[in-house]
Write a sequence for this structure.
């Protein structure tokens, strides 16, 4: 991990701790999402010969607007880009790499909008992180939404199918076997 990645990681973890202490939900973005995105992004960057540092920093900062509770969920990619730009400027990150990281944040919601391999890696890692934390998806549907178990199964099935179909072609192909195993375990029909 480079020096700049360490600085960004410390920054993000500090903001996550602030969020846990001050938000109503006390959600732990690191334990429940970011660490999974980071791990998957790193793997995808290596597989696809992307700029690993750019991808990992993009993964760390992709949800910074949600962590900082800035704006709406629908616009968190736009607000996150603005926040990340300031953070990266404060760390004197090189302009060319900064623009790539900002693209990763702006386009992390769908690989269909991605403009380069780094953006695809972060967008796909964000989706793969959902598969890494199925218990959270179940908890949201069952506990927070108060759904019956049969409805949870249907919504979970629909959710993971949508996520799988939203992956880029390159990731979907390499993930298909793992996806089928997840479906076999989670979706009992």
């Amino acid at each position: 991990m480079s020096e700049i990645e360490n600085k960004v990681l410390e920054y993000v973890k500090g903001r996550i701790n602030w969020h846990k202490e001050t938000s109503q939900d006390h959600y732990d973005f690191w334990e429940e999402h970011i660490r999974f995105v980071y791990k998957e992004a790193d793997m995808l960057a290596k597989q696809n010969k992307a700029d690993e540092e750019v991808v990992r920093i993009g993964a760390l900062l992709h949800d910074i607007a949600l962590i900082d509770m800035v704006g709406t969920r629908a616009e968190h990619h736009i607000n996150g880009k603005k926040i990340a730009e300031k953070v990266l400027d404060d760390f004197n990150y090189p302009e060319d790499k900064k623009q790539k990281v900002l693209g990763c944040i702006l386009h992390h919601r769908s690989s269909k909008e991605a403009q380069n391999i780094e953006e695809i890696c972060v967008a796909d890692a964000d989706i793969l992180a959902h598969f890494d934390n199925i218990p959270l998806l179940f908890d949201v549907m069952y506990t927070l939404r108060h759904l019956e178990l049969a409805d949870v199964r249907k919504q979970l099935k629909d959710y993971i199918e949508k996520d799988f179909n939203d992956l880029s072609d390159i990731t979907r192909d390499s993930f298909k076997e793992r996806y089928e195993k997840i479906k076999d375990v989670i979706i009992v029909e």
Observations:
- The radius of gyration is 17 Å.
- The chain has ten helices and no strands.
- The chain has a mean pLDDT of 93.
